[in-house]
Structure formats: C-alpha cells, structure tokens
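S.,

Sequence below, as promised.
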Amino acid sequence: MAVKVTFTFDETTVTRLSEAAERLSKPKSAVVREAIHDFHERIGRLSERERRRMLQVFDELVPKIPARPKSAVERELRELRRARRSGGRASMRGKSV
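The prediction came back faster than expected:
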C-alpha cells in the first residue's frame, strides 16, 4: 500500500535527487525509497570515518598496555578480589598478598 507524503527539501537536495533519478532511470520516489532503505540498513553501524578513528585509537592504545608476566597479573587480580570481599583496597593496606 502506497502512502502519499509531502517533504520540503533544499535546492541542493532536489538537484541531487533529480540527477540521481535521471542517471538511474528511476522515478524520484524510487530513489528516495532506496535511499531511506539504505540509510535504515546502516543505522547502528559505524561509518568508514568512525571505523578508521576507532582503529587509530586502538593502534595508539595497544602499545601502551604494559607487558607484565602472567603471575603478576594473577597476583593483582587475587588482591582485587580479596579487597572487594573485604571492603576495598584501603582495608588491605599492610597485609601481604
């Protein structure tokens, strides 16, 4: 079922719509429907610019991760777990791990 809807576009958008419809040999309404469908499919996905930015941040942060032996990480995790059970790290001061 088709529903008639009225929109107001600026001149640049109308020109682009007309050019797209002419190039694709489709009615303007079909171009708008396809554009809305494509836009809807991209909702929630990263744009190429966003993806590149996140990869850049990842590449900047990964080298900053300190390299520590597994035993040191496990020791710290044990300390954190113990501290959480007993009310926080402040209560762990002076106790050996």
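Residues 11-45 form a domain with the Arc Repressor Mutant fold (CATH 1.10.1220).

Coffee later?
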